[in-house]
Specification:
- The protein is 53% helix and 7% strand.
- By secondary structure, the chain is mainly alpha-helical.
- The strands form two sheets. A three-stranded parallel sheet has the order 1-2-3. The protein has a two-stranded parallel ribbon with strand order 4-5.
- The chain has 13 helices and five strands.
- The structure holds adenosine-5'-tetraphosphate.
- The site of adenosine-5'-tetraphosphate (AQP) has 21 residues, from α1.
Length: 340
């Protein structure tokens, strides 16, 4: 039996290098793993847990899908779909909402961070979104979920919910595992190495967007925060900023951390940041070229999403029907041998 891989990305404005190194890069690699079936999802219902302008959301959805295609998601191998086009997600999300405890959701660190940072009032959706994320995953019998480190806690909750439903109603859900990359699982902000790189950061100097121009990339690395001293060495405790930049360098240049450090022995931060910027510019160039191609063909992107939703629904509907039947919802069980 093939292993099911599923992951999602929120269309909330820009997609940054952290999203790519922590998640998208792995999504692409997994497509070629033998005996795996991948499904990838633009999770627009997650985006509306915070206020969105409809015109911006519409653009972000298309742009996020175009980025997924540009980084190498091949829709022939992996259906790429929009979450809101598969209503089974919302329906299972509600069912899981009715099985997750208030205390569990209250412990989610992402909720605490995001609700504190927000200027607008916090919605119930932001609070309960981990249940919807669990539905995204459990609906497809997912074995592995390629995500960045920040999603580990939500994955744990998903596993707990799967076990809870299985205990209450009999074996229903596959209990999924997180697949967190060895390098790049937690890329930190360029302007603040204590916080993760984030789309919703107040300053754009926090992140490298995948579609930043070479000039912008050079400028952002030039002003990126560094640590005291002048040696380019990996030491997350003493040199969190430089360690973060070295992680980015080693992935972008395709070298080990040891080799990355050797290359900058005896050199200062200035030289290091210049070479880092060039490595990232070169690393993103082919993605950006393909992105321009997809952006010039929005109807093709829509076609990919439409086809992906059709394929995803074929998988999601039977699982949702099974769950509803087990819970006693609807007009189940269907009468055998005609009406009674
Ligand atoms: N800084 C990061 N380092 C490594 N991986 C990261 N991911 C996010 N930030 C980093 C991973 O990217 C995938 C998609 O993320 P998402 O769209 O679900 O949104 P998020 O985790 O909420 O990402 P952001 O950019 O930080 O958004 P905001 O600012 O809205 O919170 C996930 O697999 C995530 O782990």
């Amino acid at each position: 039996l093939n292993k099911r891989i599923l992951s999602g990305i929120a269309p909330s404005g820009i997609i940054h290098l952290g999203n790519y190194l922590g998640a998208l890069r792995n999504w692409v690699a997994l497509q070629d793993r033998p005996q795996t079936d991948c499904l990838y999802c633009v999770v627009d219902l997650h985006a509306i847990t915070v206020a969105q302008k409809p015109e911006n959301l519409r653009k972000s959805i298309l742009n996020t899908a175009a980025i997924c295609l540009a980084v190498g998601i091949d829709p022939a191998k992996s259906p790429l779909f929009l979450q809101s086009e598969v209503p089974e997600h919302s329906e299972l999300g509600w069912i899981l909402n009715c099985h997750v405890y208030f205390g569990e959701l209250s412990r989610m660190t992402q909720f605490k961070d995001k609700s504190q940072k927000q200027e607008a009032a916090t919605t119930a959706g932001l609070f309960t979104y981990p249940a919807l994320m669990a539905a995204d995953i459990l609906l497809y019998g997912t074995h592995l979920v390629p995500v960045g480190e920040d999603q580990q806690q939500h994955l744990e909750l998903t596993r707990d919910l799967a076990r809870r439903i299985n205990n209450l109603y009999g074996e229903t859900f596959q209990v999924p595992d997180a697949l967190i990359p060895e390098h790049g699982a937690r890329i930190m902000g360029l302007d603040d190495p204590k916080q993760k790189m984030s789309k919703s950061a107040p300053s754009e100097l926090n992140y490298i967007a995948l579609d930043d121009s070479p000039e912008k990339i050079r400028k952002k690395f030039k002003v990126a925060v560094t640590d005291s001293g002048r040696e380019v060495v990996f030491d997350e405790e003493k040199k969190p900023a430089v360690s973060n930049l070295l992680t980015i360098y080693s992935v972008a240049a395709g070298v080990s951390m040891g080799e990355a450090q050797r290359r900058f022995e005896g050199k200062g931060y200035g030289d290091f940041k210049k070479e880092l910027a060039e490595a990232v510019v070169a690393y993103l160039a082919p993605i950006q070229e393909r992105l321009r191609g997809w952006q010039s063909r929005p109807d093709d992107v829509r076609d990919v999403l439409r086809d992906g939703a059709k394929r995803a629904r074929e998988l999601a509907k039977p699982k949702l029907d099974e769950v509803k039947a087990k819970l006693g919802l609807g007009l189940w069980p269907a009468p055998v041998g005609g009406r009674k």
